[in-house]
Design goal:
By secondary structure, the protein is of the alpha+beta class. Helix content is 47%, strand content 14%.
Length: 661
């Protein structure tokens, strides 16, 4: 494109934006009591001055106050926007803005009208000021060996291949459907490990090693403490154990919103690195500096809260089951994960692509968060997936403008299976059931919403340590991310640690792993009683005589020999069920008992040991069936994509070898 044509297009864009803002101000004059135009034509100079202040003054104020901007969740940025509107009114004359709060209302009104008009006119659909600025900065800063195409990995947390296939058929994901129909991409299914959850899967995908990770949370007898995958200290320790320095992103890549870094050069709000690296809050500056960018995100987040409230009421009105409580602070958490973290990740990813980074891996948690509470394929869950698909269209356009070619790979870390919870079905939790049968009080690692972990990573990464209020906010979010005790006394009763429809049971009175015979001696009938429960699929224990055994209500399966007595308890859990269990049995922190809920292969239902409609963590159904949507130009060298470590080796073959300069 010639410079003259570029400047012409820029002038047209500015004129269109100015016209839209002037129309918006004229409409707001009749709607907001604290905003008044003496003459309608004053909307034009007012729009121009607001635009100039938004480009010159507001970004400088945001830069100075950035830690507090992040601390307040961006609300300070909104307040600064209100002040700039108030100043603009004073400069123009004939325009009255009562105070800074009236200026905030004007800002929100401008954004709302912009959203409505630009969606109708398809103007600036993906080109906010910050993205244009990032594109220009990226072009200047790109200094990489771009002879090889880069790879951007877009992870949809919790989406199974079957759900995606049905969403494609229903027209819910037009971007990914277009890729498949045009032949630019191919879709395959892979099988995740036991446990089917983000911690183990991302460790395998990003580092090629997820040994000794039996679940999302587990107990280590050697240290008498719990380990939780998305706890910052635990995540850092886990990565230190599994990383060899040659992870998926070790070529100068970027990790965005992940649990582990993949040895990336630039890990941003990545759980394992937020306490190790210098603060990166300045990386978030462009997201908050644009006059309308964060306001737009805030409005969309508010709309998502309304959407969640409406969906929850609809479930109650129709008596839709299974369902869980969706009140309290959950609607706000949902909006943060489905809108704020998504938009932030997009801004940072596009910036890094414009710098020409060789690889990037981004985790989008929106679908997983909504599916947990709404259901795997409920209308609002699929709507969330559709919005992610629209995000991929934006990233596709950004990739076309980047200084190097990029392959876009979409994948998931696991799926989800649906069903009423164990407590809903039985009136008691698994912990209470075990306590009754063992005749001892049990302890349980208090489970927390995964979304809090992702939000905690962002807050910790973006808030300066020197801010006392920032430290308090980080502590409050961290407590919600994973509350509970770190250590347990030796004389404590059984410890039950649920991860979806999987539960690990430890007996801390003995420093070593108890055999099946020892458990029977101490707790007679416990294993058989659990295995016979109608909502338990099988219990794995390690016999001193028979080795690891999966015990069901009407039979048992010796995992090493493959011998089955009676009915095989693993028959409904997939061809590789014994293989996965045998691997887990060999972990240094394998539980004394592993309990997996029942699975109804006709309905696809499981019974989560946590209060979740959609769940994952164990065996049974679509939770073990994640997806890999990859460019057709890349060769799929492996037929046996079983386990995240195997998928890592395939992904690693696709990444460029040259490091970022």
């Amino acid at each position: 494109m010639t410079p003259s044509r570029r400047y012409l297009l820029l002038a047209i864009r500015i004129a269109v934006v100015l016209a839209i803002n002037a129309i918006a101000l004229w409409l707001l004059d009749g709607l907001l009591p604290g905003f008044d135009l003496e003459h309608p034509w004053l909307a034009i100079p007012m729009a121009a001055v607001i635009g100039i202040l938004g480009v010159v003054v507001r970004p400088a104020l945001i830069y100075v106050a950035l830690p507090l901007v992040v601390l307040t969740g961006g609300l300070l940025a909104l307040a600064i926007s209100g002040v700039t509107v108030w100043i603009a009114a004073a400069l123009v004359g004939g325009v009255h803005v009562g105070n800074w709060f009236d200026g905030v209302l004007v800002t929100l009104g401008l954004v709302a009208v912009n959203l409505a008009l630009t969606s109708v006119l398809n103007v600036n659909a993906d080109g906010s000021f910050s993205r244009r600025a990032l594109r220009r900065v990226g072009m200047r800063r790109a200094d990489n060996d771009s002879s090889e195409p880069g790879v951007v990995f877009l992870e949809i947390d919790g989406l199974s291949a079957p759900v995606l296939e049905r969403a494609i058929e229903a027209g819910m994901v037009p971007t990914m459907a277009r890729w498949l129909s045009e032949g630019s991409h191919k879709l395959v299914e892979w099988e995740c490990d036991l446990s089917s959850q983000t911690g183990a899967s991302q460790a395998g995908l990003l580092h090629g090693n997820n040994q000794d990770m039996p679940a999302f949370r587990w107990y280590e007898k050697s240290t008498a403490r719990t380990m939780v995958s998305n706890h910052p200290d635990n995540a850092a320790e886990i990565e230190a154990r599994i990383s060899d320095g040659h992870g998926l992103l070790a070529n100068g890549g970027v990790a965005l919103g992940n649990m582990f870094s993949g040895d990336a050069q630039s890990p941003l709000f990545t759980m394992s690195k937020i306490k190790e690296l210098p603060k990166t809050s300045r990386q978030y500056y462009p997201f908050f500096a644009d006059p309308y960018n964060y306001s737009r995100t805030l409005i969309l987040a508010g709309a998502d809260i309304v959407r969640e409230k409406r969906a929850a009421r609809s479930q109650l009105r129709r008596d839709e089951r299974p369902r869980v409580d969706r009140d309290g602070i959950y609607p706000l958490l949902r909006a943060m994960t489905t809108v704020v973290l998504r938009d932030l990740a997009n801004e940072l990813l596009i910036a890094k692509m414009n710098e020409g980074v060789p690889t990037a891996y981004v985790t989008y948690v929106a679908y997983d968060e909504v599916a947990h509470h709404s259901g795997v394929e409920r209308p609002d869950t699929l709507d969330t997936l559709s919005r992610l698909d629209a995000t991929f269209a934006v990233i596709e356009k950004a990739a076309a403008r980047a200084p190097r070619e990029y392959h876009l790979v979409v994948l998931s870390d696991h799926g989800q299976s649906q069903g009423a919870t164990f407590r809903q079905r039985n009136g008691v939790t698994l912990e209470e059931l075990i306590a009754g049968r063992a005749e001892r009080e049990t302890a349980s690692a208090e489970s927390a919403d995964e979304g809090w972990g992702h939000l905690s990573a962002f807050v910790s990464d973006a808030t300066e340590d020197r801010a006392l209020a920032g430290a308090a906010l980080k502590q409050a979010v961290a407590e919600r991310a994973e509350p509970g005790e770190e250590g347990v006394d030796d004389d404590h009763g059984p410890i039950v640690m649920p991860s979806g429809n999987l539960a690990l049971v430890y007996f801390p009175e003995m420093p070593e792993r108890l055999s099946a015979e020892q458990i029977e001696e101490r707790y007679p009938g416990l294993v058989d009683g659990l295995a016979a429960h109608r909502h338990v699929g099988f219990v794995m224990t390690h016999s001193a005589e028979r080795g690891p055994v999966a015990v069901g209500a009407d039979g048992s399966h010796e995992l090493r020999s493959g011998d089955v007595v009676g009915l095989d308890p693993l028959a409904d859990f997939g061809l590789n069920a014994a293989r996965h269990l045998l691997r887990t049995d060999g972990f240094s922190n394998a539980p004394d008992l592993l309990v997996n809920s029942f699975y109804d292969h006709q309905t696809g239902e499981v019974a989560a040991f946590e209060e979740l409609v959609g769940s994952h963590g164990g065996l049974g159904g679509d939770q073990s069936r994640p997806l890999l949507l990859y460019p057709a130009g890349l060769s799929l060298d492996r037929d046996d994509l079983v386990g995240a470590e195997a998928v890592h080796r395939q992904l690693k073959a696709w990444v460029p070898t040259a490091k970022q300069k």
